[in-house]
Specification:
By secondary structure, this protein is of the alpha/beta class. Helix content is 27%, strand content 26%. It has helices spanning 32-43, 57-65, 100-105, 126-138, 220-235, 245-255, 278-290; strands at 4-8, 47-52, 73-78, 115-119, 122-123, 144-151, 162-169, 175-187, 190-194, 200-203, 208-216, 259-264, 270-271. Strand 7 and strand 8 (175-187) form a beta hairpin. The two termini are 26 Å apart.
Length: 299
């Protein structure tokens, strides 16, 4: 059975100042998602599942579901605040989604096979999708997952800070732990970010980071479900707390219940975290089209 690609497209895009998932970056109106799906189809993925908000349903149906008919199976599911375990209590004024771990959980009924996870607004590169596809097709351990890793210096924005899951990897290439590190800023000789005490920590730029390019097996729904239930019991009355994938998997890696392989990609990430990033993205895609890596129009 071919693996599925789960596209996380329910983010608000607050730093970008608009619906960046559906913004045009290609010469014929393509979005970053179009290029990711193009690469996924070329790699061999058999289905695309979008995690979306209700207010962009018609746009997603028009721009992706219709366009991809006959090329790959497409489905979508809504990430809503009310997608919760039975009997939990949450703050009545809560408006913010529950995070990326919750986004995966809402797709539980749509996915029964190994699957990859991507952000809708990140460009990962064709090599990364091939690495992910090969792992999902060939690795048979139901509790062994993967991260397609990048060097931190290949993932930073010129226009502001970014959040990255910084990975510690053992000699066998397995994840030891992952720390969601916020407000990473690019420096001429590396990068910096505040630690939990507010002190500025330095990075060389060669650190392995996760760009939310994950490979999971269906067993992950049990692990993520347990962790989300614990989270919601403890933080359900918060207005803004979220449970992200790195935080969820870190607990089960440490307990030995799962393993995560780090599969390094040589690609350079780029994305539209900030509106000022868009010209850089457009230029990079234009250059790749000139080099023959992508067609001038993705039909």
């Amino acid at each position: 059975m071919k693996p599925t690609l789960l596209v996380l497209a329910a983010g608000m895009g607050s730093r970008y100042g608009g619906n960046k998932q559906l913004d045009d970056v290609g010469p014929s109106g393509e979005t970053i998602i179009d290029y990711s799906i193009y690469d996924a189809i070329r790699a061999g993925f058999g289905k695309i599942v979008f995690i979306i908000r209700r207010d962009i349903e018609e746009q997603v149906k028009e721009r992706f579901v219709k366009k991809l008919k006959g090329k790959i199976e497409v489905d979508y599911v809504f990430q809503e605040i009310t997608n919760l375990p039975e009997g939990v209590k949450v703050h009545p004024e809560r408006a913010k989604p529950w995070g990326t771990s919750h986004a995966i959980l809402v797709a539980k009924d749509k996915i029964k096979e190994p699957f990859g996870v991507i952000n809708a607004d990140d460009f990962y590169g064709a090599e990364s999708f091939k690495i992910l596809y090969d792992f999902l097709m060939n690795d048979k351990d139901p509790n062994n997952y993967c991260i397609v890793g990048y060097k931190m210096k290949n993932t930073l924005s010129e226009h502001g800070h970014v959040n990255r899951g910084v990975c510690r990897v053992d000699s066998a290439g397995l994840l030891v732990n992952i720390v969601e590190t916020r407000q990473i800023e690019k420096l001429p000789d590396g990068a910096q970010a505040p630690d939990h005490d507010g002190k500025m920590g330095k990075f060389t730029g060669d650190e392995v980071v996760s760009m939310n390019l994950w490979g999971f097996k269906p067993s992950c729904f049990e692990f993520l479900g347990k962790e989300f239930r614990s989270f919601i019991d403890a933080r359900g009355m918060d207005l803004k707390s979220e449970l992200d994938i790195p935080t969820s998997v870190d607990k089960f890696v440490k307990s030995g219940e799962i393993t995560i392989q780090i599969l390094m990609s040589n690609e350079h990430w780029f994305g539209v975290t900030y509106r000022e990033d868009k010209p850089f993205v457009v230029e990079n895609i234009s250059n790749m089209i000139k080099r023959g890596l992508y067609p001038s129009k993705i039909n």
